[in-house]
User: Which sequence fits this backbone?
């Protein structure tokens, strides 16, 4: 997901409106690219900035033990962008925000965080306020370029890059999700695992896994099956001189800087 801000002098709001910026979802890709080029060239009075959240970052946040839902993530990102503008020396007088969740509560939250700034939060703000429309165009152009240039870390061979729009009602997106669903491991990192559409497909098309530890204590389950429990791997060996494993560590562990321990 890509979040964007756009800012301009209050005296230039009409000029920004006359540039024909609009909700990015109502524009074609060519129209968005053309308007983005105009915004980027109008550096004399228009500024913009983006915050990019990878699908993996969002999934990790939403699926971790302490839940960090998409609304909270969106709010914190918007707050960070407003603060970034202030830290960059932009003298903000008005802020217009497209709501996530109840608009009144979100507006009250931002007004408390940024006293002295006139904050307006509305549903569909990107179709109501030109400055929000401009921000949505910058964000959508960036998102499209990121998706087009996505470098897969997974070994998928020749990948079909016709993803469609990325929205669940797009037949191309649906077809791509079905094509690249691994029944065991799910999706490559391009797809957000916490997305309900992806979760539904994994539940219906993926392999069902039953975790016995969900039903009984892990130690008891291991003893019943005459196996080692997970805790056994964290205890020191009796002699302390077991040979080091010679197999290659899986990339999952090396990327997260995880390694085996002999003692705690």
Assistant:
């Amino acid at each position: 997901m890509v979040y964007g801000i756009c800012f301009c002098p209050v005296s230039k709001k009409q000029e920004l409106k006359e540039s024909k910026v609009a909700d990015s979802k109502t524009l074609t890709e060519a129209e968005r690219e053309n308007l983005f080029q105009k915004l980027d060239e109008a550096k004399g009075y228009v500024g913009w900035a983006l915050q990019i959240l990878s699908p993996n970052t969002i999934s990790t946040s939403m699926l971790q033990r302490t839940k960090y839902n998409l609304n909270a993530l969106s709010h914190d990102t918007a707050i960070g962008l407003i603060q970034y503008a202030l830290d960059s020396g932009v003298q903000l007088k008005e802020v217009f925000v497209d709501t996530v969740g109840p608009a009144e509560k979100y507006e009250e939250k931002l007004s408390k965080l940024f006293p002295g700034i006139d904050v307006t939060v509305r549903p569909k703000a990107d179709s109501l306020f030109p400055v929000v429309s401009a921000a949505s165009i910058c964000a959508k152009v960036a998102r499209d370029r990121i998706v087009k240039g996505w470098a897969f870390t997974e070994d998928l061979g020749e990948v079909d890059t016709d993803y469609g729009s990325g929205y669940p009602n797009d037949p191309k997106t649906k077809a791509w999700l079905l094509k690249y669903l691994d029944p065991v491991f799910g999706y490559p990192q391009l797809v957000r695992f916490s997305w309900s559409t992806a979760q539904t497909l994994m539940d219906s098309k993926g392999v069902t896994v039953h975790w016995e530890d969900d039903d009984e204590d892990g130690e008891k389950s291991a003893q019943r099956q005459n196996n080692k429990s997970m805790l056994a791997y964290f205890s020191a060996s009796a002699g302390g001189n077991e040979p080091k494993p010679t197999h290659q560590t899986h990339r999952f562990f090396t990327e997260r800087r995880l390694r085996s321990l002999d003692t705690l």
Remarks:
- The mean pLDDT is 85.
- The beta strands are 2-7, 47-52, 94-98, 118-122.
